Amino acid sequence: MNTANFPWLTTIILFPIAASLLIPILPDKDGKTVRWYALIVGLIDFALIVYAFYTGYDLSEPGLQLAESYAWVPQLDLNWSVGADGLSMPLIILTGFMTTLATLAAWPVTLKPKLFYFLILAMYGGQIAVFAVQDMLLFFLVWELELIPVYLLLAIWGGKKRLYAATKFILYTAGGSLFILVAALAMAFYGDKVTFDMRALAAKDFALNFQLWMYAAFFIAYAVKLPIIPFHTWLPDAHGEATAPVHMLLAGILLKMGGYALLRMNVGILPDAHVVFAPALVVLGVVNIIYAALTSFAQRNLKRKIAYSSISHMGFVTIGMASFTNLGLSGAVLQMVSHGLIGASLFFLVGATYDRTHTLMLDEMGGVGQKMRKIFSMWTACSLASLALPGMSGFVAELMVFIGFATSDAYNSTFKVVIVFLAAVGVILTPIYLLSMLREIFYGPENKELVEHEALVDAEPREVFIITALLVPIIGIGFYPKMLTQMYDATTVALTTRLRDSVPSLTEKQQATDTLPTNLKTVAIAPEIGD
Are the C-beta atoms of residues 386 and 346 closer than 8 Å to each other? Predict the structure, then answer.
């Protein structure tokens, strides 16, 4: 069978959406049939993703692959245009993997199960579309459509303050999305040719002032999703009210949409403006790391503690993408995938713990490790991964960002020393609040009132399987990061080159270094931004 011209990405996007439309007519009363149906659909789509990657993706090619383009609304130059490169392919695979596990994590759901799994499958296709579409107007549409399932999943299946959390989420994200539409229209109509195609937009010669305005508009929209302080306040509320499978989708996929869009639009299409904004991104990244770590340390609610921990770890993404080095940019992409796996595992364990203790307050726990030894072991492993223990994916990602930024020739030495020192402080805070959290939950004497009133049963096989499935890539990437970095190395190298070409001093240094004898290249010194 010749699969070279098969529309893989279109099929992968539309299959779960089409399958979700059949859920209302499924003969099911207690939710058992529909959950198996959703899981099988998720597995099939994930298998299609893996097969398309294995057969049709060339690791050495930096440009778009598996590309498809069909005229949709020719009068508006709106095309169904999809494709995958090193920035999107790892996140498409992550989406398939995480959504399938989230479907399995949703096994206990009994409230409106048909609607729940309908939203999960619709969200599945929408999130893959965000990473795959290559038309700016189409990107805005799928970005907006993806918000609806999240809003309903929060508003219907959330906690006591679910309506507040869902409303805050939709106001922040939909409000930010308006900036995407305005910027997309402005860029499309700039110049002589009207186009929404991202590759055509990247080739346009935008004036610097125009780029700055467009960069600021995109940044506001994507900073909400990433999230970057001060646009972060929706996230602790959303996580505070979400259920375990929704937690996994929020931490594992939703936040990565913001980082991906920053790389795709701000860095890839507006490189000259990125040069101007890069120092601010670095500073905001450090603020994320330290402020969120300190806030997490002070939280007594388990969900909010892990939510602020997520915000802290995403600070490394902005530092890496502003480093102007391939190592730093590669570390940023690796951190997105790594955090997706680690964050999802921690939030799943929060849900599993709450199902047994019926409390999220650390003050009401204590000593539960004696009754829940498997859950204690899984919590320990996932917490060690989150604090970047060597041998885990988080360690490799954060180390790459640190070294990439520290060796960058785009900033002066004083700025780099200050940033690295402050980021290191945030790294030191992480094991403090995570290990103290483990101590308060599992160690010490048992809380007699909790033990007497709650059935503290240990983990069931389904829960052990989900955490094991997440820990395998976490540890695998930790010991052999090339298994992931080779997916996007060609793309990040090309993107770094494009960025450095936007900085005259870096271009001059590269040209000067290329003319030196090999034994002198290591001592070549270039002017630094800020000197």
Answer: yes
